[in-house]
Amino acid sequence: MFRFLLALFLVVAASAKPPNVIVILADDQGWGDLSMNGNRDLSTPHIDSLAAQGASFDRFFVQPVCAPTRAEFLTGRFFSRTGVRGVSTGDERLNPDERTLADVLKEAGYATAAFGKWHNGTQPPYHPNDRGFEHYEGFTSGHWGHYFDPWLERNGELFKAAGYITDDLTDRALKFMGENTGGPFFCYIAYCTPHSPMQVPDRFFDKFADKKLEMEYGGFPGREAHTRAALAMVENVDENVGRVLDSLKRSGIADNTIVIYFSDNGPNGPRWNGGMKGTKGSVDEGGVRVPCVVRWPERIKPGTAIKSVAGAVDLLPTLAAAAGVSVGAEKPLDGVNLLPALEGKAETPQDRLLISVQGRGERARCSVRSQRFRWVKGGGLYDPMKDPGQKKDLTAEYPDEGKRMRDFATKYLAEVAPNLKNDQRPFTVGYSPVTWLPARDGVPKGGVKRSGRAPNCSFFTHWTKPSDSIEWHVKVGSAGRYEAILHYTCPESDVGSSIELSLGDAKLHATITEAHDPPLYGMESDRSDRGGSESFVKDFKPMRLGEIDLPEGEGTLRLKAIEVPGDSVAEVRWIELRRSED
C-alpha cells in the first residue's frame, strides 16, 4: 500500500509541475504549405504529428506581415496598440512598456531563451534580452541576406554561425533545452524560412528541382523556382521540428512540454493555399490564415480539432493559464484563453472579432473576421468557408453582420490612429553597455544609397563626397564616453578618407588607413532571383574610430567625410557604440 501511495504521490507531483513551453514560428509559410492540409507536393510528417498527437486550429489568424504578428504573439494585444507599425526602419519596435510572454514566464521561474528572427526591435530596451529572454541567439532584423554560415548575434555580440541557418538555430535551441531539462523552460524558436532569400541545402532542393508539381500554384509566370525552393525550405523546417520532438522524447520530458507551431503570415509567393484569396501582405483570408498546431500529451487529447476562430493574440493568455501564472498586465488583452477549448472543456466565444491591418493612416487596409464572415474595408462581406476566393459579396444578404464588423473596424482604427502615423521614435543609445546602429535604421543623405531596396539587411554604399552623410535619429539615455566602432569595407585605392562622427557639439575624427575589400556573396546560393529588393552581403571589418562624449537626450548622429582622396569613402554596415566603464 505504501508503495502504491508513494507512486500515486509521485504521479500527482509530476503532473503538477509547470509545463515546459516551446513555440516554433515559421516565416512566410502559408496554410497550404503542409501535407496535413492537403498539399500533395511536399511531406511534413513531424509538423503533422503535432496535430495528430495534439490539437489543430482550423481557422487561426495572424497579421499580413511579420513584425505585427510577432508583437501580437508576445503581448496578447492587437499590434497597433503596441507601437509596431511595420517591418523596418524602426517601425517594427515593440514599445518597452508592453509586457511579453517571456516576461510573464520568467517572473514565474522559467528559464527563457529565443533563437532566430526577433523582428521587434534591435537597440535596448527593445532587444530580446530586455523583453524577458535571458538568452538570445539570432538576428533582430526583418530578414537576413544569407542563410549559410551567417553572421548572427549572441546577447549583443556578433558571431559566425555554422551551416544552414535553420539547422544551426535548432542546434542552439536543443543545447538550451538540454541544459534545462529540470525545467521549466520557455524556448522560442523563430525560424526565418521559407522567407527569402530562397536558399536551402541541395539535399532538400534536389527533390523539387525537376519534380512535377500536382497542386495549383497561382499562375505566376517565372516564379516556379521560388515555389520549388519554398517547398524545399518547408521540408527543412519540418526536419528540424522533428529534431526538437526527438530531443524531448530522449530527455523524457515530452509529456509535460507544450509545443506550438504556427506561421507569421500567408505565403510569400505563388503556392497552393486552398483556393483562398490573398498572399503575404494581404488582409484577405489567404494572407492571414495560417496553420497552428499544439501538442501537450498530459492535457490535450490526440486529434483535437478547434473550429472556433483564434489567433496569435490568444497564445499569451493560453500559455500563461497552462503554466498556472497570472498575466499581471496593466493593459487589457485582446486575446482569450484557449486552454479550456484545447482540453475539450469549453468552446471559445463565438461572437468574437479579430482584426487585420496593413498600412498607414486613412489608407490602411483592414479586414475583420468573425466566426463565419470576413468583412474587408473597401471590399465587402464574404463567407470564406464556402467562398475561399471571396468572390461573392454578401453585404446585402447580411446587412446587420456587415455593419457590426464595419463599426468594430471604424472604432478600432480611430483608437489606434496615432499609432498608424509615421514613426517618430528615435533609436535608443546607451540603454545597455553596447548599442548597434545598423544601416537599416540610418538615413542616407546626398549620393549615399542602400545596397538593396529593402532596408532590413542592407548596407550603405556610393558614399563619395564630403557633402554626403549617413544619419541616425537617436536618443542617448545615458550621457558619457562611448567607444565608436565603424563596420566598413574600402578598397586599397580609396584608403585615406578622413571622416567625422558627430552628435550636436560632440565630434570624433578618424582616418581610414586600412583596406578591406571583400567580395559580395549570396547570389551563388540563391534558388531564385532576388529582383534587387534584398541586398546581397559582405563581411565587414570593425574599425575603432575613437571615443566620443555623448550628451543625454535626442539628436542626430551624423557620419560624414571631411576629405575624400579616392573615388569613395567606404561602405557601411554598422556603427557600434560601447559605453566606457569609467
Automatic annotation (TrEMBL):
Q: Which PANTHER family match?
A: ARYLSULFATASE FAMILY MEMBER (PTHR42693), ENDO-4-O-SULFATASE (PTHR42693:SF53)
The similarity comment for this entry is: Belongs to the sulfatase family.
Q: Which organism is it from?
A: Haloferula helveola
Domain called Sulfatase N-terminal: residue spans: 19-325
Key word Plastid present in the record? no
Q: Which InterPro entries match?
A: Alkaline_phosphatase_core_sf, Sulfatase, Sulfatase_CS, Sulfatase_N
Q: Respond yes or no to whether keyword Membrane is given for this record.
A: no
Q: Which Gene3D superfamilies match?
A: Alkaline Phosphatase, subunit A, Galactose-binding domain-like
Residue spans with biased composition (Basic and acidic residues)?
A: 524-537
Q: What residue spans carry the region label Disordered?
A: 517-537
* Protein name, entry field: N-acetylgalactosamine-6-sulfatase
Source taxon at top rank: Bacteria
Keyword line: Calcium, Hydrolase, Metal-binding, Signal
Q: Which residues cross the membrane?
A: none
Could you say which residues form the signal peptide? 1-16
